[in-house]
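ARCHIVE CARD
Drawer: 12
Card no.: 0347
Subject: one protein chain, sequence and derived structure
Cross-reference: see card 0346
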Amino acid sequence: MSLPGGGRRWFVIVNPVAGGGRGLDHFPLISKLLRDAGIQTEPVFTEHKFHATELTVSAVKQGFRRIIAVGGDGTLHEVVNGLFIQQTVDPREVLLAVVAVGAGNDWIRTFGVPNRYQDAIRAIKEGHSFLQDVGVVSYEEAHYRQHRYMANVAGMGFDAMVVKKYAHLKKKGHSNKWLYTWCMIRSFFSYKSTGVKVWIDDRLVYNNLLMSIAIGVCKYNGGGMQQLPEAVADDGLLDVSLIRPVHFWHILFRFRYLFNRLCATVGRIMDEVSEELQSSDFEPLAFELEFGADGQLPAITIREENGTARVVGKVDRVDGWLHDGKLYLRVVDYKTGKKSFDLAELRYGLGLQMLLYLFTLKEEGQMLFGGHEIVPAGVLYTPAREPMLRCARDTEPEKIEKALKKELRRSGMVLEDPAVLQAMEHSALESPCYLPIAVKRDGAVTGSLASAEQLGKLSKYVDHILHEITQEVFAGNIDADPYARTPQQSACTYCEFASACHFENGCGSDRMEYIKATKNDEFWQYIDEVNGEGAHENG
């Protein structure tokens, strides 16, 4: 079919103020990605409120049957209303795509539409599409019956008040990622619940004070809040969520519960660390030990022919054991998440921070710790969280405690020396509880161990990686070379620059490098190979 106006071109409606100005700032990149994908476009910028609705009506009249909205949920809302206001064609004959640059981007969350511009544009190019329901809201304003169409969620009461405040502040020029949250907090203390009657299919289902109501076809609104978790966008049904009045003292009680739970968690962690230290000859020597201009130790310096780089940082805790005139040090890092020590990460030059601190303490820490010769004894990640266990209701307390101990076992690498292991944990050679090691029936100790010689090799390897990074920085290399464990778990997943990055896995020379599991022997063989290429001496 040949269309006189649009043909196979896409009419692109750009909201320049969406996302605090991202619509305008990022459109050159979006336009280039569209051209690179071979998508013919006719872009137009909105100039005022509801302009996107007017542009949509005009575009359909001109023959366009493909429209891209470059904006946020507000821009999409206006375009959808334009599609249903126009009388030229059935709205189902128009294909609508979204390149999200807004602050909330709630509509794309339900459907899994990519946030990354290149991924969204690839989906457009490949023709991925679906039909969804659209709701209509009828209301009376200035004695006239009005209609508004919604493709996501409509809110009334408290929700509407928040949106009103948010729109007012945006109009005055305020714009930041916490603006919506601030509007919610302000509105909560000023909003008064209203008496409401709710009918569904001619049946009265609610008649009382109501704080807020959400009605919609999708799941999310308010910048990621899942108010309609069971919503299915093409089931022909509207989902409804009612929120009864929430009083200030309810929040206080909830805060009290959360605070008490936090205190209990902190208390348990402190008890657990205290028990560990009581069964150890290693003693804490420093907390929050800082490397840098204002720290107790100088910054870590990497010198190259064309410049010098300095690395600054902070160690959560340094423990030491003085034995035969030597000070054995271990670096301890508290983790609230599930971060663990992984040889595969070291193999790819990741997760070097703890080892870097340990080896720097060997070189720079003598004066700080009494002038003793320092021997690296290991690095440990200590869980600073209360794990959630799945147990039967009748599970014995002893089994629960044993399971908790297992979840809270340290992760890391320690020196393969029986005296040092026993100093770290008195029962290490019989039944270790805290260290990342195990004892076989024949008394052999296994686990995350490294000999003094291997730690020396690891020190050279870390130094080698630092010099490689420094050389690339001075050479101006800013290529995106992300690592990934799975396609869903990659360095790009939470990258703040994802929307502006040109990286597209599988396109041209762009390739995601996957982290492969590395066995102990393979790791040390690789370290020998790298060090054999000639590692630098740290400056």
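Annotation on reverse: Confidence is low (pLDDT under 50) at residues 1-5, 534-539. The two ends are 70 Å apart (CA to CA).
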